[in-house]
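HUMAN: Spend a minute on the protein record below and explain its fold to me.
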Amino acid sequence: MDGSGPSKVILASGSRPRARMLASAGVPFTASAASVDEGTIKKSMQATGADIADVTELLAATKAQQVSRNHEDSLVIGADQMLACDGEWFDKPMNLLAARNQLEKLRGRTHELISAVCVVRDGGVLWHHIDRARITMRPFSEAFIDQYIEKMGENICATVGGYELEGLGVQLFSRIEGDCFTILGMPLLPLLDFLRGHGVITE
């Protein structure tokens, strides 16, 4: 840093939960969503036998590096989350039918959420962190799925699991193991430590 003050912070994401996390924590930032072909990256790495954590971390870094090209000397935050259940990787559902099928597949089972966050400046990764959480869905009824989808609508297609823990989605679960911010899509506490170390927020 050149002594002129802390670097500007950019969130390389259009995710509302991630933006809410940073805003609620008092982090000054602006958002600039990345445009990354996540599907191609996932398929390519899965075909080579890559670990899901490595894929998640790569996606977070790729998003931040892309946005970083247009924001010189800024701290660009990239984040990504993936879901795995018994070796199968899940993506955000494309529509309500896909969301229903996914919820039925996860019902009564334990799945893992892997969340990665990284910070990039001028294309170089300064810092990264990855965390995992385990979530068990209860054996909910078909009637509950009907009710849940009707109330949530297209919002359930915005998250990899088809749910938001901070809303009606909490009724899907019987057990949650892990950090709440990891479940929401970004390990926040380690990120705040990094930002404090770079003068963005007060030590």
